Amino acid sequence: MSVFKRFFLLALISFMASCQQSSECKVFTENDIAVIPKPVKLVRNKGAFQFDENTKFILADASQKEIVSVLSDKFKNVSGWNLEVLEQAPQQNYVQLLVHENLGDEAYKLEVSSNRILITSKRNAGFLYGIGES
Fold first, then answer.
1. Is residue 126 very low, low, confident or very high in pLDDT (cuts 50, 70, 90)?
2. Which of 132, 131, 73 is nearest to 97 (CA)?
3. How far apart are CA 80 and CA 99, in angstroms?
4. Which structural domain, as residue segments, surrounds residue 93?
5. Separation in Å, CA 90 to CA 65, 72, 100, 121
6. Half-sphere exposure (CA, 13 Å, Cβ side) for 66?
7. Which pTM does this prediction carry?
8. Number of domains in the chain
9. Do residues 67 and 97 make contact, with C-beta atoms less than 8 angstroms apart?
10. CA–CA distance, 94 with 89 (Å, rounded to integer)
11. Which of 33, 61, 110, 126 sits 20 to 30 Å CA-CA off 39?
12. Chain segment 13-43, per-residue pLDDT in tens
């Protein structure tokens, strides 16, 4: 399974895990989350992130613009959404790339909450894996 498919699988799981208006929530187990290769660490929390036409991408620096365009183009092709790229994060509904020098060159950390997605890496290779592009 490509990394892009893994990212979308996680996003889809997050989307599907959102609570219904009846306040019933589907609870996913670790076995329900079929990410290959298996993450070193997986922590399941309540809530879900939902992409929509107002979702923004937030970059740490200009070198990440090409990386975000890969994912943004996929959204545009599938949904017609032209997702905006910003320098500063709004209060919610965004995907942000953060640099952390203590991670390995290809390592990344993916944190998904109901308000945002944070992808943290040391180098662009890690960000590419984080957004699901191998």
1. confident
2. 131
3. 29
4. 3-131
5. 18, 18, 21, 21
6. 3
7. 0.73
8. 1
9. yes
10. 7
11. 61
12. 444 444 444 455 556 666 666 665 667 777 7
d(CA 10, CA 3): 11
Rounded CA-CA distance 73/91 in Å is 24
Handedness of CA 30, 6, 12, 116 (dihedral sign): positive
Question: Domain holding 41: CATH number?
Answer: 3.30.379.10
Output 88 or 1, whichever has higher pLDDT.
Answer: 88
- Give the type of residue at 84: E
Torsion angle of alpha carbons 8, 11, 13, 14, nearest 10°?
A: 180
Tens-place pLDDT, residues 55-113? 999 998 888 888 888 888 888 998 999 999 998 999 999 999 999 999 988 888 888 88
Edge to edge, what strands does the sheet with 56-58 contain? 84-86, 56-58, 94-99, 116-121, 108-112
**For 11-39, b where at least 16 C-beta lie within 10 A, e where not — what string?**
bebbeebeeeeeeeeeeeeeeebebeeee
